[in-house]
């Protein structure tokens, strides 16, 4: 049975502090480079991207924020995702930390301005696609489970017409943009690790949905690619 406990307000504040301030602005907090415009740009995109996506999603699906905030309380979450989901979240948060340490110790030579414009486009594209997926999919939870109590069904509209897991694709796109914007070659190491975890999680989640969610096998025959259009 799923836990119905309300979230502790202190826990909620701490989570929001981490998600909205500490992780997005970790490069600045680590280096104290207050004039680092690239880091401010990254932090701003993360900050406003998170808020805008949640406001839009909650407006369309009032119960989705509660579902996501209680993701790890659900007993029917797949056992393997109790490991993969935190790895994906904290792994992504580790990317700007590595970039901040890279800048602090001046380990990478950096990228030119054109590359940084491309990186901003990648970040905005990733957040845009992720927001689209979150708003379109009422069952966009933080962990993998069949949400029977919420009437879980297949979502095949919006970005789900193109690929079956646009949320993961959006995260990968955004993650690639971070090292490019923050001048960090070293940050590509956690980017690669997170990408590996995302591919594994995508495979396992897709297998779970095909086996346990009515209509998903038929949907998979129409929308054939899981993560990358025309490839996989």
Overview of the structural elements:
- This protein starts with 8 loop residues before the first helix and ends in a 10-residue tail after the last helix.
- The chain contains nine helices and no strands.
- It has a single domain, classed as Up-down Bundle (Four Helix Bundle (Hemerythrin (Met), subunit A)).
- The protein is an all-alpha fold.
Q: Topology of this structure?
A:
Elements: H1 9-22, H2 26-31, H3 37-60, H4 64-69, H5 81-105, H6 113-136, H7 166-181, H8 188-212, H9 216-222
Helix pairs in contact: 3-6, 5-7, 5-8, 6-7, 7-8
State the distance separating the first and last CA atoms: 35 Å
The tally of helices reads: 9
Please state the structural category: mainly alpha
Low-pLDDT segments: 1-5
- Sheet having the most strands: none
CATH topology: Four Helix Bundle (Hemerythrin (Met), subunit A)
Shape: globular
CATH architecture: Up-down Bundle
Elements, N to C (H/E): HHHHHHHHH
* Overall pLDDT metric: 93
Oligomer: single chain
**What's the alpha carbon Rg, rounded to whole Å?**
18 Å
CATH class: Mainly Alpha
Tell me the helix content.
Answer: 55-70%
- The fraction of residues assigned to DSSP E strands is under 5%
Number of strands: 0
Number of domains: 1
